[in-house]
Protein: 13600_t:CDS:1
Amino acid sequence: MSSSHVNKNPPDLSVLNVGQSDTTPYNIGPATLEDLLPKEKDLTIFMDSLRGFADVVRNLEKISDPNESLTLFAPINHVFLNLQVKPNAVREEDNDDEAVAQERFHQFVLGHIVPNSVSFESETSDGELNTLSNLTTIHVQKAEGKEGVKLNGNVNIVGKKIEAVNGILYKIDGILVNI
Structure:
């Protein structure tokens, strides 16, 4: 009897990493903001900024309470690369105190996070969004002559909104916090 349908090259199962230890968490279920951020290659600098603060990471990982959703307004990489003053830099007025610079950077990051889900798909009117930073409010204006909004008068949302089980991610072409 001829066996013409037998696969002489079995599949390579080593790609499944079965039985191998891996330090990467294995997530089954709905994607969180923390899950989706690494997939956005133009947000690596902002993602690294977020991960520098444990309180922010905890918020990005939360999925248990739908009332605790977040909206991230994430500056794309070229925004950070073009800044004259980096948000995490120690400045002369800091008296070389890295703790002061670190807290300013923390407030910078928190100023790009709104503590609820914000969607601009319906008719948007002018308004304000409170952020996780007590120092920052985002001013929202309907964009003139086209769909969309302007944030703080000159920052645009680029691309489509990215939805996660615990919030929404928008890529933006500027920063929302004065540095």
The beta strands are 70-75, 113-114, 127-130, 137-142, 149-151, 155-164, 167-172.
